[in-house]
Write a structure and sequence with these properties.
This protein is an alpha+beta fold. The chain contains 15 helices and 20 strands.
Length: about 525
Amino acid sequence: MRRVVSLYLPSWSTDRLRRKSGASRAEAFPPDRPLCTALPDHGRKVVAAVDGAARALGIAPGMTVTKARSLAPELAAVDADPEGDLAALRRLALWCGRYSSFVAPDPPNGIWIDISGCAALFGGERALLKDLHRRIAQAGYALQIAVADTPGCAHAVARHVPAGRPITIDPGDQRKAMSLLPVAALRLEAGQVDGLRKLGFDRIEQLIGTPRGPLARRFGRTLHQQLDRALGHAPEAIEPIFPPQVPRCRRGLLEPIATPEAFGRVIGDLVSDLVGQLVRLGKGARRLDCWFHRVDGHAQAIRIGTAAPTRDAAHLVKLLQAQVDQVEPGLGIEAMTLVAPLVEPLGSSQADLARAGHKEADIGALVDALTNRFGPASLHRAAPRPGGMPERSVASVAALDRGGGARWADDLPRPGRLIDPPQPIQVTAMLPDHPPAMFVWKRKRYRVLQADGPERLHGEWWREAGHEARQPYAVRDYFQVEVEGGGRYWLFRLGDGERMATGSMTWFIHGAFA
Protein backbone atom coordinates (compact mmCIF):
# COMPACT_ATOMS: atom_id res chain seq x y z
CA MET A 1 0.00 0.00 0.00
CA ARG A 2 1.34 3.39 -1.00
CA ARG A 3 1.60 6.13 1.61
CA VAL A 4 2.82 9.60 0.68
CA VAL A 5 3.65 12.48 3.00
CA SER A 6 3.20 16.07 1.85
CA LEU A 7 5.32 18.48 3.88
CA TYR A 8 4.05 22.06 3.44
CA LEU A 9 6.18 25.02 4.54
CA PRO A 10 3.88 28.05 4.22
CA SER A 11 6.55 30.57 5.27
CA TRP A 12 9.55 28.88 3.71
CA SER A 13 11.23 31.98 2.23
CA THR A 14 10.66 34.25 5.22
CA ASP A 15 11.55 31.56 7.75
CA ARG A 16 14.82 31.07 5.87
CA LEU A 17 15.52 34.81 6.07
CA ARG A 18 15.11 34.86 9.83
CA ARG A 19 16.95 31.59 10.38
CA LYS A 20 20.04 32.29 8.27
CA SER A 21 20.47 35.85 9.53
CA GLY A 22 22.60 36.88 12.46
CA ALA A 23 21.77 39.10 15.42
CA SER A 24 21.54 42.26 13.29
CA ARG A 25 19.02 40.68 10.91
CA ALA A 26 17.04 39.26 13.85
CA GLU A 27 16.72 42.80 15.25
CA ALA A 28 15.60 44.10 11.85
CA PHE A 29 13.00 41.34 11.45
CA PRO A 30 11.58 40.48 14.89
CA PRO A 31 8.99 37.67 14.90
CA ASP A 32 6.09 40.04 15.55
CA ARG A 33 6.94 42.30 12.59
CA PRO A 34 5.31 41.21 9.30
CA LEU A 35 7.81 40.14 6.67
CA CYS A 36 7.54 39.34 2.97
CA THR A 37 9.76 38.72 -0.01
CA ALA A 38 9.17 40.54 -3.27
CA LEU A 39 9.94 40.13 -6.98
CA PRO A 40 10.09 42.84 -9.68
CA ASP A 41 7.21 42.75 -12.13
CA HIS A 42 7.01 45.34 -14.94
CA GLY A 43 8.43 48.17 -12.88
CA ARG A 44 6.67 47.31 -9.64
CA LYS A 45 7.32 45.00 -6.71
CA VAL A 46 5.01 42.03 -6.18
CA VAL A 47 4.81 39.97 -3.01
CA ALA A 48 6.31 36.52 -3.57
CA ALA A 49 6.03 34.97 -0.07
CA VAL A 50 4.76 36.07 3.34
CA ASP A 51 5.24 35.01 6.94
CA GLY A 52 2.49 34.20 9.44
CA ALA A 53 2.19 37.75 10.76
CA ALA A 54 1.76 39.22 7.26
CA ARG A 55 -0.71 36.49 6.30
CA ALA A 56 -2.84 37.30 9.35
CA LEU A 57 -3.09 40.92 8.15
CA GLY A 58 -4.50 39.86 4.77
CA ILE A 59 -1.28 40.11 2.76
CA ALA A 60 -0.97 37.38 0.13
CA PRO A 61 1.45 36.44 -2.68
CA GLY A 62 0.68 38.26 -5.92
CA MET A 63 -0.27 41.49 -4.17
CA THR A 64 1.81 44.57 -4.91
CA VAL A 65 4.11 45.71 -2.13
CA THR A 66 2.44 49.13 -2.21
CA LYS A 67 -0.96 47.64 -1.48
CA ALA A 68 0.55 45.34 1.14
CA ARG A 69 2.08 48.31 2.95
CA SER A 70 -1.28 50.05 2.94
CA LEU A 71 -2.55 47.12 5.00
CA ALA A 72 0.57 46.97 7.21
CA PRO A 73 2.79 50.09 7.17
CA GLU A 74 5.39 48.28 9.31
CA LEU A 75 5.77 45.51 6.68
CA ALA A 76 9.39 44.62 5.86
CA ALA A 77 9.94 43.66 2.22
CA VAL A 78 13.11 41.86 1.11
CA ASP A 79 14.13 40.87 -2.41
CA ALA A 80 13.21 37.25 -3.05
CA ASP A 81 15.84 34.62 -3.83
CA PRO A 82 13.97 31.89 -5.76
CA GLU A 83 17.12 29.99 -6.70
CA GLY A 84 18.40 30.02 -3.13
CA ASP A 85 15.01 28.91 -1.83
CA LEU A 86 14.88 26.04 -4.30
CA ALA A 87 18.42 24.92 -3.47
CA ALA A 88 17.61 25.01 0.25
CA LEU A 89 14.39 23.08 -0.38
CA ARG A 90 16.38 20.37 -2.16
CA ARG A 91 18.79 20.18 0.78
CA LEU A 92 15.89 19.80 3.19
CA ALA A 93 14.38 17.12 0.95
CA LEU A 94 17.66 15.21 1.02
CA TRP A 95 17.71 15.52 4.80
CA CYS A 96 14.25 13.93 4.82
CA GLY A 97 15.98 10.86 3.35
CA ARG A 98 16.39 9.75 6.99
CA TYR A 99 12.73 8.66 6.75
CA SER A 100 12.70 7.30 3.21
CA SER A 101 15.06 7.30 0.27
CA PHE A 102 12.11 8.24 -1.98
CA VAL A 103 11.94 12.02 -1.48
CA ALA A 104 11.44 14.93 -3.87
CA PRO A 105 11.04 18.70 -3.57
CA ASP A 106 7.60 20.12 -4.36
CA PRO A 107 8.43 23.74 -5.29
CA PRO A 108 8.06 26.39 -4.16
CA ASN A 109 7.42 25.36 -0.54
CA GLY A 110 6.75 21.65 -0.24
CA ILE A 111 8.37 18.23 -0.09
CA TRP A 112 7.12 14.77 -1.03
CA ILE A 113 8.15 11.76 1.06
CA ASP A 114 6.99 8.32 -0.03
CA ILE A 115 7.07 6.32 3.23
CA SER A 116 5.65 3.09 1.79
CA GLY A 117 7.20 0.24 3.78
CA CYS A 118 9.30 2.57 5.94
CA ALA A 119 6.97 3.50 8.81
CA ALA A 120 7.57 0.30 10.80
CA LEU A 121 11.23 1.26 11.23
CA PHE A 122 10.15 4.30 13.28
CA GLY A 123 7.54 2.63 15.43
CA GLY A 124 4.63 3.25 13.08
CA GLU A 125 3.33 5.97 10.80
CA ARG A 126 2.22 8.30 13.58
CA ALA A 127 5.60 8.06 15.31
CA LEU A 128 7.39 8.86 12.02
CA LEU A 129 5.21 11.91 11.37
CA LYS A 130 5.57 13.12 14.94
CA ASP A 131 9.35 12.91 14.74
CA LEU A 132 9.40 14.70 11.37
CA HIS A 133 7.14 17.48 12.65
CA ARG A 134 9.16 17.94 15.86
CA ARG A 135 12.53 18.17 14.14
CA ILE A 136 11.51 20.70 11.49
CA ALA A 137 9.51 22.81 13.94
CA GLN A 138 12.50 22.94 16.29
CA ALA A 139 14.60 24.21 13.37
CA GLY A 140 12.38 27.30 13.24
CA TYR A 141 10.08 26.54 10.29
CA ALA A 142 6.30 26.78 10.19
CA LEU A 143 4.92 23.58 8.69
CA GLN A 144 1.87 21.45 8.06
CA ILE A 145 2.04 17.72 7.33
CA ALA A 146 -0.48 15.30 5.85
CA VAL A 147 -0.16 11.68 4.76
CA ALA A 148 -2.50 9.82 2.42
CA ASP A 149 -2.59 7.10 -0.21
CA THR A 150 -2.09 9.60 -3.04
CA PRO A 151 0.22 12.60 -3.46
CA GLY A 152 -2.70 14.78 -4.58
CA CYS A 153 -4.78 14.09 -1.47
CA ALA A 154 -1.85 14.63 0.90
CA HIS A 155 -0.95 17.87 -0.93
CA ALA A 156 -4.51 19.20 -0.73
CA VAL A 157 -5.05 18.38 2.96
CA ALA A 158 -1.67 19.75 4.05
CA ARG A 159 -2.43 23.13 2.44
CA HIS A 160 -6.16 23.53 3.08
CA VAL A 161 -6.77 21.91 6.48
CA PRO A 162 -4.89 23.98 9.10
CA ALA A 163 -3.68 21.88 12.01
CA GLY A 164 -0.95 22.07 14.58
CA ARG A 165 -0.11 18.39 14.22
CA PRO A 166 0.30 15.90 11.37
CA ILE A 167 -2.93 14.85 9.67
CA THR A 168 -3.37 11.19 8.75
CA ILE A 169 -5.86 10.22 6.05
CA ASP A 170 -6.82 6.59 6.52
CA PRO A 171 -6.26 4.27 3.55
CA GLY A 172 -9.02 4.61 0.98
CA ASP A 173 -10.51 7.78 2.52
CA GLN A 174 -9.30 10.24 -0.14
CA ARG A 175 -12.81 11.16 -1.30
CA LYS A 176 -14.06 11.74 2.23
CA ALA A 177 -11.03 13.87 3.09
CA MET A 178 -11.23 16.07 -0.03
CA SER A 179 -14.96 16.52 -0.56
CA LEU A 180 -15.27 19.81 1.30
CA LEU A 181 -11.96 21.28 0.14
CA PRO A 182 -11.96 24.13 -2.46
CA VAL A 183 -11.35 23.29 -6.10
CA ALA A 184 -8.01 25.11 -5.89
CA ALA A 185 -6.75 22.17 -3.80
CA LEU A 186 -6.51 20.13 -7.02
CA ARG A 187 -3.46 22.13 -8.17
CA LEU A 188 -5.28 23.69 -11.12
CA GLU A 189 -4.25 26.78 -13.03
CA ALA A 190 -5.60 30.09 -11.74
CA GLY A 191 -7.73 30.55 -14.86
CA GLN A 192 -9.39 27.17 -14.40
CA VAL A 193 -10.15 27.88 -10.73
CA ASP A 194 -11.72 31.24 -11.57
CA GLY A 195 -13.76 29.69 -14.38
CA LEU A 196 -15.08 26.92 -12.13
CA ARG A 197 -16.08 29.40 -9.45
CA LYS A 198 -18.02 31.47 -11.99
CA LEU A 199 -19.97 28.31 -12.82
CA GLY A 200 -20.72 27.71 -9.14
CA PHE A 201 -18.12 25.01 -8.44
CA ASP A 202 -16.54 25.92 -5.13
CA ARG A 203 -15.88 22.51 -3.55
CA ILE A 204 -14.40 19.30 -4.89
CA GLU A 205 -17.53 17.29 -4.02
CA GLN A 206 -19.43 19.33 -6.61
CA LEU A 207 -16.99 18.24 -9.33
CA ILE A 208 -17.17 14.56 -8.33
CA GLY A 209 -20.92 14.35 -8.93
CA THR A 210 -21.03 16.39 -12.16
CA PRO A 211 -20.98 14.83 -15.67
CA ARG A 212 -17.51 15.16 -17.09
CA GLY A 213 -18.21 15.85 -20.75
CA PRO A 214 -19.26 19.52 -20.58
CA LEU A 215 -16.49 20.42 -18.13
CA ALA A 216 -13.84 18.59 -20.17
CA ARG A 217 -14.81 20.49 -23.31
CA ARG A 218 -14.46 23.80 -21.49
CA PHE A 219 -11.47 23.18 -19.22
CA GLY A 220 -9.60 20.38 -20.97
CA ARG A 221 -8.34 17.03 -19.66
CA THR A 222 -6.22 18.49 -16.86
CA LEU A 223 -9.19 19.08 -14.55
CA HIS A 224 -10.35 15.48 -14.29
CA GLN A 225 -6.84 14.13 -14.56
CA GLN A 226 -5.88 15.97 -11.36
CA LEU A 227 -9.12 14.85 -9.70
CA ASP A 228 -8.54 11.20 -10.60
CA ARG A 229 -4.95 11.34 -9.36
CA ALA A 230 -6.00 12.81 -6.02
CA LEU A 231 -8.75 10.21 -5.54
CA GLY A 232 -6.47 7.34 -6.51
CA HIS A 233 -8.21 6.48 -9.78
CA ALA A 234 -5.14 7.38 -11.86
CA PRO A 235 -1.43 7.04 -11.03
CA GLU A 236 0.79 9.96 -10.15
CA ALA A 237 4.52 9.39 -10.19
CA ILE A 238 7.04 11.28 -8.07
CA GLU A 239 10.56 11.62 -9.38
CA PRO A 240 12.87 11.19 -6.38
CA ILE A 241 16.18 12.94 -5.88
CA PHE A 242 19.31 11.45 -4.36
CA PRO A 243 22.53 12.98 -3.07
CA PRO A 244 25.28 12.66 -5.68
CA GLN A 245 27.40 10.52 -3.35
CA VAL A 246 24.67 7.96 -2.57
CA PRO A 247 25.33 4.64 -4.36
CA ARG A 248 22.33 3.59 -6.43
CA CYS A 249 21.43 1.67 -9.56
CA ARG A 250 18.30 1.13 -11.62
CA ARG A 251 16.95 -1.51 -13.98
CA GLY A 252 14.27 -0.73 -16.54
CA LEU A 253 12.49 -3.90 -17.69
CA LEU A 254 11.43 -4.71 -21.24
CA GLU A 255 8.25 -6.35 -19.95
CA PRO A 256 6.53 -6.04 -16.57
CA ILE A 257 7.28 -8.77 -14.03
CA ALA A 258 5.14 -9.92 -11.10
CA THR A 259 6.66 -13.04 -9.48
CA PRO A 260 9.08 -13.35 -6.53
CA GLU A 261 11.43 -15.41 -8.70
CA ALA A 262 11.65 -12.64 -11.30
CA PHE A 263 12.18 -10.07 -8.56
CA GLY A 264 14.99 -12.19 -7.17
CA ARG A 265 16.85 -12.28 -10.50
CA VAL A 266 16.65 -8.51 -10.91
CA ILE A 267 17.73 -7.99 -7.30
CA GLY A 268 20.80 -10.12 -8.00
CA ASP A 269 21.76 -7.87 -10.93
CA LEU A 270 21.14 -4.69 -8.94
CA VAL A 271 23.20 -5.87 -5.96
CA SER A 272 26.06 -6.84 -8.28
CA ASP A 273 26.08 -3.32 -9.75
CA LEU A 274 25.83 -1.69 -6.34
CA VAL A 275 28.62 -3.77 -4.82
CA GLY A 276 30.91 -2.61 -7.64
CA GLN A 277 30.19 1.01 -6.67
CA LEU A 278 30.81 0.25 -2.99
CA VAL A 279 34.18 -1.36 -3.80
CA ARG A 280 35.29 1.73 -5.72
CA LEU A 281 34.18 3.96 -2.82
CA GLY A 282 35.76 1.77 -0.13
CA LYS A 283 32.38 1.57 1.61
CA GLY A 284 30.06 -1.07 2.96
CA ALA A 285 26.26 -0.92 3.05
CA ARG A 286 24.42 -0.56 6.34
CA ARG A 287 20.99 -0.01 4.80
CA LEU A 288 19.48 -0.78 1.41
CA ASP A 289 16.17 0.38 -0.07
CA CYS A 290 14.82 -1.48 -3.08
CA TRP A 291 12.05 0.32 -4.94
CA PHE A 292 9.56 -1.45 -7.21
CA HIS A 293 7.99 0.85 -9.81
CA ARG A 294 4.63 -0.42 -11.02
CA VAL A 295 3.19 0.21 -14.46
CA ASP A 296 0.36 2.23 -12.88
CA GLY A 297 2.85 4.76 -11.47
CA HIS A 298 2.82 3.51 -7.88
CA ALA A 299 6.05 2.65 -6.14
CA GLN A 300 6.69 0.26 -3.25
CA ALA A 301 9.82 -0.27 -1.21
CA ILE A 302 11.46 -2.92 0.90
CA ARG A 303 14.26 -2.03 3.29
CA ILE A 304 16.97 -4.09 4.93
CA GLY A 305 19.64 -3.16 7.45
CA THR A 306 22.91 -4.78 8.45
CA ALA A 307 24.59 -4.87 11.85
CA ALA A 308 27.97 -4.00 10.31
CA PRO A 309 29.02 -2.52 6.94
CA THR A 310 29.17 -5.17 4.25
CA ARG A 311 29.42 -5.60 0.50
CA ASP A 312 28.90 -9.34 0.46
CA ALA A 313 26.65 -9.66 -2.59
CA ALA A 314 25.26 -13.10 -1.70
CA HIS A 315 24.36 -11.97 1.80
CA LEU A 316 22.63 -8.78 0.62
CA VAL A 317 20.70 -10.65 -2.07
CA LYS A 318 19.48 -13.17 0.50
CA LEU A 319 18.26 -10.44 2.85
CA LEU A 320 16.42 -8.60 0.06
CA GLN A 321 14.84 -11.74 -1.38
CA ALA A 322 13.43 -12.56 2.05
CA GLN A 323 11.36 -9.34 1.86
CA VAL A 324 9.89 -9.57 -1.66
CA ASP A 325 6.72 -11.24 -0.38
CA GLN A 326 5.66 -7.78 0.85
CA VAL A 327 5.53 -6.42 -2.70
CA GLU A 328 2.13 -6.09 -4.38
CA PRO A 329 2.96 -6.02 -8.10
CA GLY A 330 -0.50 -5.01 -9.31
CA LEU A 331 -0.39 -5.06 -13.12
CA GLY A 332 3.36 -5.59 -13.04
CA ILE A 333 6.69 -4.02 -12.12
CA GLU A 334 8.34 -2.09 -14.97
CA ALA A 335 11.48 -0.87 -13.17
CA MET A 336 13.45 -1.46 -9.96
CA THR A 337 15.85 0.84 -8.12
CA LEU A 338 18.34 -0.11 -5.44
CA VAL A 339 19.68 2.65 -3.17
CA ALA A 340 22.22 2.50 -0.32
CA PRO A 341 21.22 5.55 1.79
CA LEU A 342 23.49 4.52 4.68
CA VAL A 343 27.06 3.38 4.06
CA GLU A 344 30.18 3.25 6.22
CA PRO A 345 33.89 2.85 5.48
CA LEU A 346 34.92 -0.75 4.85
CA GLY A 347 38.47 -1.61 3.94
CA SER A 348 39.69 -4.64 2.02
CA SER A 349 40.50 -7.80 3.96
CA GLN A 350 43.19 -10.39 3.28
CA ALA A 351 41.97 -13.92 2.63
CA ASP A 352 43.37 -16.58 4.98
CA LEU A 353 44.72 -19.28 2.64
CA ALA A 354 45.42 -21.64 5.53
CA ARG A 355 41.69 -21.75 6.29
CA ALA A 356 40.51 -21.70 2.70
CA GLY A 357 38.74 -25.04 3.15
CA HIS A 358 37.12 -24.17 6.49
CA LYS A 359 34.03 -22.00 6.64
CA GLU A 360 33.65 -20.21 9.95
CA ALA A 361 30.31 -19.17 11.37
CA ASP A 362 29.35 -15.68 10.26
CA ILE A 363 27.69 -14.12 13.31
CA GLY A 364 27.04 -10.89 11.44
CA ALA A 365 25.03 -12.70 8.75
CA LEU A 366 22.96 -14.47 11.42
CA VAL A 367 22.29 -11.18 13.22
CA ASP A 368 21.23 -9.51 9.95
CA ALA A 369 18.88 -12.36 9.06
CA LEU A 370 17.20 -12.35 12.47
CA THR A 371 16.97 -8.56 12.65
CA ASN A 372 15.36 -8.20 9.23
CA ARG A 373 13.00 -11.09 9.99
CA PHE A 374 11.80 -10.03 13.45
CA GLY A 375 12.67 -6.32 13.62
CA PRO A 376 15.61 -4.38 15.09
CA ALA A 377 14.01 -4.22 18.56
CA SER A 378 13.85 -8.01 18.83
CA LEU A 379 17.59 -8.69 18.89
CA HIS A 380 20.05 -7.29 21.39
CA ARG A 381 22.74 -8.29 23.85
CA ALA A 382 23.37 -7.43 27.47
CA ALA A 383 26.32 -5.20 28.29
CA PRO A 384 27.63 -3.86 31.60
CA ARG A 385 27.20 -0.25 32.58
CA PRO A 386 28.11 1.68 35.73
CA GLY A 387 25.56 1.11 38.47
CA GLY A 388 25.50 0.28 42.15
CA MET A 389 22.42 -1.93 42.00
CA PRO A 390 22.25 -5.02 39.76
CA GLU A 391 19.11 -3.92 37.88
CA ARG A 392 20.94 -0.74 36.81
CA SER A 393 24.28 -2.35 35.98
CA VAL A 394 23.14 -3.90 32.70
CA ALA A 395 22.00 -2.32 29.45
CA SER A 396 20.59 -3.61 26.16
CA VAL A 397 22.85 -2.79 23.22
CA ALA A 398 22.99 -3.76 19.56
CA ALA A 399 23.75 -7.41 18.92
CA LEU A 400 27.28 -6.76 17.66
CA ASP A 401 28.04 -3.86 19.98
CA ARG A 402 30.97 -4.56 22.26
CA GLY A 403 29.56 -2.41 25.03
CA GLY A 404 32.38 0.13 25.11
CA GLY A 405 34.92 -2.33 26.52
CA ALA A 406 33.35 -2.50 30.01
CA ARG A 407 33.37 -5.88 31.79
CA TRP A 408 31.64 -7.45 34.74
CA ALA A 409 33.81 -8.51 37.66
CA ASP A 410 34.72 -12.21 37.34
CA ASP A 411 34.59 -12.74 41.13
CA LEU A 412 30.98 -11.51 41.39
CA PRO A 413 28.77 -14.09 39.66
CA ARG A 414 25.44 -12.79 38.47
CA PRO A 415 22.38 -14.74 37.32
CA GLY A 416 21.63 -15.03 33.64
CA ARG A 417 18.07 -13.81 34.24
CA LEU A 418 17.22 -10.83 36.43
CA ILE A 419 13.71 -10.20 37.73
CA ASP A 420 13.06 -6.46 37.46
CA PRO A 421 11.63 -5.25 39.73
CA PRO A 422 12.57 -7.78 42.42
CA GLN A 423 9.56 -9.68 43.75
CA PRO A 424 8.82 -10.06 47.48
CA ILE A 425 9.01 -13.56 48.98
CA GLN A 426 8.32 -15.13 52.36
CA VAL A 427 11.45 -16.56 53.98
CA THR A 428 12.13 -18.82 56.95
CA ALA A 429 15.64 -18.48 58.41
CA MET A 430 17.24 -19.69 61.65
CA LEU A 431 18.20 -16.12 62.58
CA PRO A 432 17.38 -12.80 60.87
CA ASP A 433 20.92 -12.48 59.49
CA HIS A 434 21.25 -16.14 58.43
CA PRO A 435 20.71 -17.54 54.92
CA PRO A 436 17.17 -18.68 54.19
CA ALA A 437 16.23 -22.28 54.94
CA MET A 438 12.96 -22.09 52.99
CA PHE A 439 11.09 -19.50 50.94
CA VAL A 440 7.69 -19.15 49.26
CA TRP A 441 7.47 -17.53 45.82
CA LYS A 442 4.26 -17.35 43.76
CA ARG A 443 2.52 -19.66 46.26
CA LYS A 444 5.13 -22.36 45.78
CA ARG A 445 7.39 -23.53 48.61
CA TYR A 446 11.12 -24.03 47.99
CA ARG A 447 13.40 -25.85 50.45
CA VAL A 448 16.97 -24.54 50.42
CA LEU A 449 19.74 -27.18 50.38
CA GLN A 450 22.78 -24.92 50.07
CA ALA A 451 23.40 -21.18 50.32
CA ASP A 452 26.35 -18.92 49.62
CA GLY A 453 26.63 -15.35 50.87
CA PRO A 454 26.00 -12.73 51.89
CA GLU A 455 27.26 -10.21 49.33
CA ARG A 456 26.43 -6.77 50.68
CA LEU A 457 25.49 -3.89 48.36
CA HIS A 458 24.87 -0.34 49.52
CA GLY A 459 22.43 2.21 48.12
CA GLU A 460 23.37 4.64 45.35
CA TRP A 461 23.84 7.78 47.43
CA TRP A 462 25.06 9.74 44.39
CA ARG A 463 21.72 9.60 42.57
CA GLU A 464 19.87 12.89 42.32
CA ALA A 465 16.94 13.65 44.58
CA GLY A 466 13.57 12.56 43.25
CA HIS A 467 14.94 9.64 41.21
CA GLU A 468 12.54 6.72 41.35
CA ALA A 469 15.27 4.36 42.54
CA ARG A 470 17.03 6.68 45.00
CA GLN A 471 17.74 4.77 48.24
CA PRO A 472 20.95 6.32 49.58
CA TYR A 473 20.94 4.37 52.85
CA ALA A 474 19.58 1.05 51.61
CA VAL A 475 21.53 -2.14 52.25
CA ARG A 476 21.02 -5.43 50.43
CA ASP A 477 22.49 -8.75 51.50
CA TYR A 478 22.47 -11.15 48.53
CA PHE A 479 22.51 -14.98 48.78
CA GLN A 480 22.89 -17.62 46.11
CA VAL A 481 20.69 -20.56 47.08
CA GLU A 482 20.16 -24.02 45.65
CA VAL A 483 16.81 -25.69 46.23
CA GLU A 484 15.46 -29.21 45.96
CA GLY A 485 15.18 -30.14 42.31
CA GLY A 486 18.37 -28.28 41.32
CA GLY A 487 17.08 -24.74 40.89
CA ARG A 488 19.48 -21.93 41.81
CA TYR A 489 18.18 -18.48 42.73
CA TRP A 490 19.46 -15.09 43.79
CA LEU A 491 17.75 -13.70 46.91
CA PHE A 492 18.41 -10.63 49.01
CA ARG A 493 17.37 -9.23 52.36
CA LEU A 494 16.70 -5.50 52.50
CA GLY A 495 18.32 -3.90 55.56
CA ASP A 496 21.26 -4.58 57.87
CA GLY A 497 19.17 -5.28 60.98
CA GLU A 498 20.61 -2.35 62.91
CA ARG A 499 19.25 0.82 61.29
CA MET A 500 15.70 1.13 60.01
CA ALA A 501 16.87 3.55 57.29
CA THR A 502 18.70 0.68 55.57
CA GLY A 503 15.57 -1.40 55.02
CA SER A 504 12.68 -3.28 56.56
CA MET A 505 14.40 -6.71 56.71
CA THR A 506 12.04 -8.06 54.02
CA TRP A 507 13.21 -10.61 51.45
CA PHE A 508 13.09 -10.47 47.65
CA ILE A 509 13.96 -12.75 44.75
CA HIS A 510 16.05 -10.95 42.12
CA GLY A 511 17.13 -13.58 39.62
CA ALA A 512 17.66 -17.18 38.60
CA PHE A 513 20.87 -18.90 37.51
CA ALA A 514 20.83 -21.01 34.37
